[in-house]
Amino acid sequence: MKSTPEHTNSLIQETSPYLLQHARNPVNWYAWKPEVLKKARKENKLLLISIGYAACHWCHVMESECFEDQEVAEVMNRHFINIKIDREERPDIDHIYMDALQMMTGSGGWPLNVVTLPDGRPFWGATFVRKQDWIKVLEQLSTLYQTNPSKVFEYAAQLEEGLHTINLIPAPEKEGQITQKDLTSIVKNWSQYFDTFLGGYKRAPKFMMPVNLDFLLHYSTLFQDPETEEYVHTTLSRMAYGGIYDHLGGGFSRYSVDVKWHIPHFEKMLYDNAQLISVYAKAYAAVNDPLYKNIVEESIGFVTRELMHPDGGFYSSLDADSLDKQGNLKEGAYYVWTEKELSDELGEDYQIFSDYYNINSYGHWEEDNYVLIRDKTDEEVAKKYKLSVKDLRSRINHCKKILLAKRELRHRPRLDDKILTSWNALMIKALAEAYRYLGKEEYLVMAEEAITFLENTVLTENGSLFHNHKEGKSTIEGFLEDYANLISAYIELYEVTFEESWVKKASKLSEYCLLHFLNDKSGLFYFTSDKEEITVRRSLETADNVIPASNSVMALNLYKLSLLFPEKPFGTIADKMLLQMRESILENPNSHANWMHYPLYKVFPFREVVITGPSTAKFATSLLSQYYPNALFAGAVRDGSISLLKGRIHPEKSQIFICENGACKLPVSTPEEASSLL
C-alpha cells in the first residue's frame, strides 16, 4: 500500500530535489545532521542510511518498490533512525559508506544502503533490494542487534579499521620523479585494455572518462605517439557518433550500456558535459576536426538551454526517466523515436536522415524505439546521395531542428536544480577553454557571469566556500573538490584574460586550503576541512574517476601557481604530493590519469609564455588557440604585479618571452616566432 500524498517527513524542509522527492514517503526520513546522530545515540537505535541522487534510475525504482510502501515504512520506522542523503550534496559521507560497501560486497553503486551503529559505524550494506528481501534483511539486522550486540560491534570495529587502512597512502618506497621511461611503460601496459576500434575500454558498460582522454591527448602530443593519439581520436569520434550523445539537443548521457556507445543510461550530468566540452575543445585545437568543434558548440548549447540558472550558475543534472506517451515514467522516453514518428515529421527527408542516423537494425533499441547513432562520415553519406557535404549538413540540421521542436513538446525529464560549487567550477573552466580554442566571446562572458554568481552565493567573507546553493540558501561547508576546481577555473580565466584578480583569488583560496585541509604528515589534503565534525574517518580523495580527484587537481593548481607566485610554498607542496603518490600512479595509472599530467610537466620542458605590450590581446588570441599542454600563459599591456611580468613590460613594444622556471630567452616580436619555440 502506497503513502497518501498528504503525509510528509522532515525532508520537506530541505532544498535538494532528491531529498524532496522522498519528503512524502511514509518512511520517517531525516537529513544528515548532527542532531539526528545524537537522537540515534540517545535512543540506542541503528541508523539506516540510504544514499542516492536525483538522476539515478534505480534509486527511483527502489523508492517506488520500498520507500513508498506502508509495510516497508512500518518496519523501517519501528527499528531504525532513517537518513536520506543526496550523494551530490554530501560526497564526504558517500565516500565513506561507498568504501564500506565495497569492502563488504566487493562492488558498489547507487542506491547505496547501509545500516550502522548509532555512532555511524557501518556493519551491513547493499545497493538495490526488492521489497520482500528488504523487509526480511531489516528484521534480521534488528533482531541481531537486540540479541547479539557484541557480534555487531565486533564486525563494525573490524570494518572501521579497514576503512582507516584503505584511506592511508603508503610512504614512497624511493625518492625520485616519474621518468619518461616510466610513463611510456605505464601507457603501454594500460593500452592493452583500450578498444582501438570502438574507443573506450574493451567492455560494457562504457564510461567516457574524460580524465583519461585529457591525459592521453597530452601524453600523445608530447611523446609524438601516433597509436595513442589515434586511440584518443577514435574514442572521441565514436562517442560523438554514438547514442550516448544527444544528436538533437547536444550534450552527453552518463554512460553506455553496450560496447558501441549506443544505448545510454539517459541521465545527463553537468560534470560529464563540462569535462567533455574541455576535452573536445582541446582535441579541436590539436587536430582542427570540425566534428569536435560542433560537439563543443552543441554541448554548450545544451547546458545553456537546459542547465543554466537565470543569473549565471549551472544546475546539476537531468533525470534519465520521463513520462512516455501512456503517462508512465520510463527511462529514455524523452529521447527515443519510432520509425513512424520520424517519417511523419520529416517527410521526404526521412530517407536520408534514417540512413545518416541508422533507423535500422543497427540503431534499434527495444520495442519499436530507436536511439540515433552514426557510423558513417558526412563524406560517405554525401557521396551516396550525390550531395555536397555542405548541402548534406544543411538538410540534416534542418531535420534536427524539426525533431528538436517536436521533442520539446514531450514531458521533460526532471531537473535537479541545485547548484554545486565544484561542478559549476568545472563548467566555468570548460567555457574558458572553449573560448580559448574556438574564439567565441560569448563563452567567456558566460564563464565570467557564472563565476560572479558563485562568488555572490557560495564565497563567504572569511574566504571559505559553501558546497551548494539553491533558492537563496547555501548550507553545506565546502569540500576540497569545491576549492580545487574553483582554483583551477580561476587559473584558466587568468590565462585567457590576463586579469590578475583571477589568479590572486586562486592564490588566496589555495592559502585557505593549506590552513584548513592540508595533512602535514602526508603532504596531501583532506576532503573535509578542519572545521567539520568527523564521521568514522577524515577521508583523503586521491583516485581519479569520472571526476578528477580533488588532490590531483590541487597538485596541478599549486604547480602552476608556483610559477606565478614563486615566493610562496606552493611548488614545494605540489612536489611532495607527487612524490607521495608515486607508487600509486605507477601501479594504477587508469585511476590516476589526472595526476599524470604533473610528471609530463616535469619530464618535458614546461614553458611560461609571457606576452606584453600594446599587441598583448592580439598575440594572446593567436597563441592561446593552439594546443600547448605544457605551457602557462601570463601577460599585461602596461601594468602587472606577477613576478613573471616584472621588467618585461615595455609600454610601446609588444614582446613574447618564452621562459622555463622563471628564466626567459630573449623576447620575440611575433606569435609565429613564439610558436616555433614552443
Concise account of the structure shown:
This protein is of the alpha+beta class. 49% of the residues lie in helices and 11% in strands. The radius of gyration is 26 Å and the shape is globular.
Can you characterise this structure?
The chain is α+β, with helices and mostly antiparallel strands and 678 residues long. It folds into four domains: 10-166, Glutaredoxin; 180-320 and 416-603, Alpha/alpha barrel (Glycosyltransferase), CATH 1.50.10.10; 335-409, no CATH class; 607-677, no CATH class. Helices cover 49% and strands 11% of the residues. The protein has 25 helices and 21 strands. The strands form seven sheets. A five-stranded mixed β-sheet has the order 1-3-2-4-5, sandwiched between helices. It is globular. The chain starts with 16 loop residues before the first helix and ends with a helix. The model has no long low-confidence stretch (mean pLDDT 95).
Throw out a few tags for this protein.
4 domains, alpha+beta, five-stranded mixed beta sheet, Glutaredoxin, four-stranded mixed beta sheet, Glycosyltransferase, 678 residues, globular, 49% helix
